[in-house]
């Protein structure tokens, strides 16, 4: 098998590692491409191509993550990962870990870790690498990596909900949520929301959103039914779709361009959190992106001109 063929076989794994470290589809793709360029240029014949390439993409991602931290500290408003439609890497033995680690909630927890803690946690806990492999990838001793793993696991466990929702129950509740949203049913939405539900958007200051967030079932239900139906009124569409392994939807303008995405955190038979990505810089991998300001202005004009408005 040629180097190029070996690399292509491992590309899904390399992207999966990089995305979990960076929370960015575009940056993960760049890290994978840089990994290929370094692999192509080296004269080294690795004992394990998988271990070698995983180490390279991890080190590249750590460097990117360190430089990105200062940018994220200056980010306007709430920062969310770029929405991921499909995880290209599948491993039946670790399917639960893979699904959990790509959720918006888990990626936001990973943001709390140092770059090294994050890398060790992702390689060890998510992908099941041995400690010698992890140590080689991050350039630290096995003993240091074990300590990093313990700290990372503790931080992750402290932030996770105690019980996960059953997948079927979660999908059924999400279907009811999106039906009520499409119909503008305030009461129907309210009964699906946790009393302390939070709805937060990531616009990066580049698209309209709901300030610092909307909190509480009554307010969230009313804001949703007062805004999104007008997107549908001007020809916009909502495409329910799993995003980051969670129930979600992609919203498009009538010309098919992407306006935003939305994901739901479901726990205890209720929607606990609603996260919207509206920043156009984070939506380009889903297709051409709409001018969210223009779409919002048109929707508001339609709302003001409606009978009884």
Task: Please describe what this structure looks like.
The protein is of the alpha+beta class and 309 residues long. It has two domains: 3-159, PhyR, sigma-like (SL) domain (Butyryl-CoA Dehydrogenase, subunit A, domain 3, Up-down Bundle), CATH 1.20.140.160; 167-304, Nuclear Transport Factor 2, Chain: A. Helices cover 54% and strands 13% of the residues. It has twelve helices and six strands. The chain has helices spanning 3-22, 25-41, 49-73, 95-101, 104-110, 115-126, 131-138, 142-159, 167-183, 186-190, 217-233, 292-304, and strands at 193-202, 214-215, 237-240, 248-252, 258-267, 270-277. A six-stranded mixed beta sheet has the order 2-1-6-5-4-3, with helices on one face. A hairpin with a 2-residue loop joins strand 5 (258-267) and strand 6 (270-277). Helix 6 packs antiparallel against helix 7 (131-138). It is elongated and about 75 Å long. The mean pLDDT is 92. It holds the Pfam family Sigma70_r4_2. Residues 105-156 form the RNA polymerase sigma factor 70 region 4 type domain. Interacts transiently with the RNA polymerase catalytic core formed by RpoA, RpoB, RpoC and RpoZ (2 alpha, 1 beta, 1 beta' and 1 omega subunit) to form the RNA polymerase holoenzyme that can initiate transcription. This is RNA polymerase sigma-70 factor. Residues 7-70 form the RNA polymerase sigma-70 region domain.
Descriptive labels:
single chain, alpha+beta, RNA polymerase sigma-70 factor, transcription regulation, sigma factor, Butyryl-CoA Dehydrogenase, subunit A, domain 3, 309 residues, 2 domains, transcription
């Amino acid at each position: 098998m040629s180097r190029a063929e070996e690399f292509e076989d491992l590309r899904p794994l390399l992207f999966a590692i990089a995305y979990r470290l960076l929370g960015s589809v575009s940056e993960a793709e760049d890290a994978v491409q840089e990994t290929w360029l370094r692999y192509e240029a080296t004269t080294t014949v690795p004992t394990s191509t998988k271990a070698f390439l995983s180490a390279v993409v991890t080190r590249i991602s750590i460097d990117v993550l360190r430089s990105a931290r200062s940018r994220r500290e200056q980010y306007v408003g709430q920062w969310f990962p770029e929405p991921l439609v499909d995880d290209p890497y599948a491993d039946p033995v670790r399917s639960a870990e893979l699904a959990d680690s790509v959720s918006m909630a888990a990626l936001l927890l990973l943001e709390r870790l140092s770059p090294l803690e994050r890398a060790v946690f992702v390689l060890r806990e998510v992908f099941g690498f041995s400690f010698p492999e992890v140590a080689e990838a991050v350039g630290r001793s096995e003993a240091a990596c074990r300590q990093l793993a313990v700290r990372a696991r503790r931080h992750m466990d402290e932030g996770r909900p105690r019980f996960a929702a059953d997948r079927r129950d979660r999908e059924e509740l999400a279907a009811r949520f999106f039906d009520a949203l499409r119909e503008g049913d305030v009461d129907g939405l309210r009964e699906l929301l946790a009393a302390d539900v939070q709805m937060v958007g990531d616009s990066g200051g580049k698209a309209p959103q709901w300030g610092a967030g909307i909190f509480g079932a009554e307010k969230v239900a009313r804001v949703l039914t007062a805004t999104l139906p007008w997107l549908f009124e001007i020809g916009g569409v909502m495409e329910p779709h799993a995003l980051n392994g969670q129930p979600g939807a992609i919203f498009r303008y009538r010309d098919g361009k992407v306006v935003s995405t939305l994901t739901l955190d479901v726990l205890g038979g209720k929607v606990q959190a609603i996260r919207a990505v509206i920043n156009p810089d984070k939506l380009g991998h889903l297709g051409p992106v709409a001018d969210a300001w223009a779409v919002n202005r048109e929707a508001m004009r339609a709302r003001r001109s409606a009978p009884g408005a």
